[in-house]
Amino acid sequence: MDYVGHRVAQEAAREATSATTPFTALNFILLSVLLYTTYSTVSRSNTVPPLPRGPPPKVFRTYTPRTLLPFNGQDDGPIFFAVRGRVFDVSPGRSFYGPGGPYANFAGRDATRGLACHSFDSDMLTEDLDGPLDTLDGLGPNEMEALQGWEETFMGKYDVVGKLVSVADYNASAKATTADAFPANGN
Ligand code: HEM
């Protein structure tokens, strides 16, 4: 075979090889793109976005007039008040009950009598924080009806976060709980 014939045969053999092999530059690039796209799709779907931090959980507790008092909204703290033994978290109504608000006198207090009588007078609030709760004596049907209206409003608007009891009742129930947990064994 002469030189030209030999080269033609060589070229023909090379073209045949490159046409059948899958390892061409273009295939390599396409394969890389495919792998990258697959990887980024899979890794994105595995990444769970962080959940937004919710408000702290609310725990139902038993309060006395004294332990309710700190919940008066000072220093941006929560605001609670009690109405007929129910403790409401009225923090969403900070503009009403927060420091400087028109109804700030009720914050951290038993607001029952003041609401029933539509009065901000200080003698509407329980004075002795360690004494008995207001028995609501002296309130007439109109006041009781007004009170019920307030309760309905608050029940639809605010969370109930506890109950208000006198210190005496609190201590009595704490004693009863301890006795239940550690009953005398008769020795
Ligand atoms: C001049 C007399 C008064 C005026 C003009 C007045 C005005 C208002 C207004 C505009 C609201 C907002 C209502 C809303 O947007 O839902 C409100 C709510 C309220 N008011 Fe009065 N008020 C007066 C007297 C009183 C009195 C005497 C009391 C009780 C002692 C009282 C207790 C409340 C309470 C508890 C709320 C509800 C706040 C809440 O939704 O948490 N207000 N008042």
TrEMBL record:
**Which terms in the GO cellular component ontology are assigned?**
endoplasmic reticulum; membrane
Q: Which GO terms describe its molecular function?
A: heme binding; metal ion binding
Pfam families listed in its UniProt record: Cyt-b5 (PF00173)
Record keyword Kinase present? no
SMART domains linked to this entry? Cyt-b5
Q: Which family does it belong to?
A: Belongs to the cytochrome b5 family. MAPR subfamily.
According to UniProt, the name of this protein is: Membrane-associated progesterone receptor component 1
The organism encoding this protein is: Moelleriella libera RCEF 2490
